[in-house]
Amino acid sequence: MAAMAAPAATQASESSLGALQVQADGLRREVEALSSRQRQAEHAQRQREQASDSLLAEIERLKAQPEGVARDLALNEKLALSQAQAAVLSRESAALRSGAFQLRAARQRLVALCDRILRTDEESSLSAGQRLLWLRLRTAQVEALLVASKPAAPAAVIGSATAAMTAAATASETVDDPQALREQADLLRDSVDKLRRELDRLASRSEELRRRERLRERASRVDEDLFAEQATARRRAGGSALRGAAEMAAPAADTTGGVFSAPPSGPSQPAATPRTGPDPSTLDALLRSEGSGDPAVKQQALQRARSELETLAADLLRRATQLEQRASDLSRQK
Do 221 and 299 belong together in one domain? Predict the structure, then answer.
């Protein structure tokens, strides 16, 4: 019963893994769509902010002119237009904040889903490359979350002095909040842990590949020894037959008046080792080409992946340490 349950559990795990990947791929597309809309909205807002800047500059120019009916009419018109633009910018800012919140939540769900995929793949159903793709996707979402947590510069908020002061205060609270910095550091350290676990998995796969190669090399040496033994036995057998033929021809030469007759023509000994199978180098190449490719190429790819992940983990760890140090410095200042 246990033997029957194991394949069923494996199939269920693979089915669950496949469903998670489909779900994650759909969520990835949703994140890309939200991110694209957010970039377009931010671009449109920057254009309106530039138009508002120009309008404010025109208002200041009109205010500097001498009072008069024409000047007052133009100024009132510009002021009304400025108020309308400020209302539009306020609504767009609210929409941008809502979009940023939705995008952040979607990225967080995608990070959690990538973690579930990597955690569910206990039987290594995914190849090293597939796992690396999900891990890269996860790391990209973490990076995007960290970038999104940085506040916009106060100069990017155009409108009133109150709005600019509010933006500056929000920026100061976000940048100088030790708790927020520690949360960002924890997010980075969690990514480092995921990378290190993947490094261990890659090292295990690399060692398994080397172990299989060692077994293949031993099998190849056994084959070579077997071929050598067969060749030696055949050479000995051929030599014995030649010696027997020479001994039989010697008396015949004596009865013909001392003229030595050469033995009948024929192969004296094998010219080369008999080929009972492929050449050891060819056999080794065939063994290495089984499966998905050349084991040497696999080993090289695994090494490159490990090197890349090690570099990335070191960089994330360095940044996490810097954030923690800044949080500690801010805590002591307060």
Answer: yes
